[in-house]
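Components:
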Amino acid sequence: MACITAEGVLTESARQLLELLETPRTVDEIASTLGRPLFQVRASLREMTDAGLVVAAAEGGHVLTEEGLTQLGVPA
Amino acid sequence: MEIVRQSPEPQAAPRLPRLGDTAPPFEAVTTFGKLRLEDFKGSWLVLFSHPADFTPVCTTEFMAFAKAHPELRKMNCELLGLSVDSVYSHIAWARNVEEKMGVEVTFPIIADLNKEVATLYGMVMPSDSTTETSRCVFIIDPEQKVRAMIYYPLTTGRNVEEIIRAVRALQATDEHGVATPEGWQPGDEVIVPPPQTQEAAAERVGDGSVACKDWYFCKKAI
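Structure:
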């Protein structure tokens, strides 16, 4: 699913996913928490990584970047 | 000096996937955004093409696939549709199917406008149509191997129940190391692979755990 609209606004599904990533989570954890299929989570994470919103975490999984925090309205 | 023009090398047709091959990888625009085949790793996948959106046979098939989707999900199997229509056409058609037929299309559909994926998988059958994809089905396993292929012409709708049955049968084969007889359904007996040596054949006949008509034709419950 597209994570950012043409107007540059986070989609609802992207926001839900980003909110989970304030702490690092694996694809499996995200999929089971959000009740989404793995393929959808993988595609969303790839898109958000390309957009600079998330990054692979050293300990595995993905975590928010400063840009991701900003998009969520959380002070970095 | 005379310039000799060499005719270009004839372009080799892409090698089409065969049973047991690794499914050709792709990235495609879909109604769920950009997806790659690798996104489906770890799940079974039914990749299927249809000739065109807003056509009646395809609509009946899509309704059947959509109704089967929850059951397939329980089997760790995803659906991925494809035609050469645009993503806007797919979205409009999916919305129309929901509005007019009361069936929500819950799986992504590839908008294969340039026939890239269709060409990789041999989904265009020029004798059937040069502009549309035929009714092709590729059952791909969690390791992304092609495990079954089904091809139907434009005129003839597929039987989604049979596709579900085929996925179940392949899963039973992987789980139990057995083959499945014609029309096998869960709960039916399965075929024990035939012995490969005379000694094994003699042992098989005396094996009380399997029901044999003859040494090569033995079934068991799983």
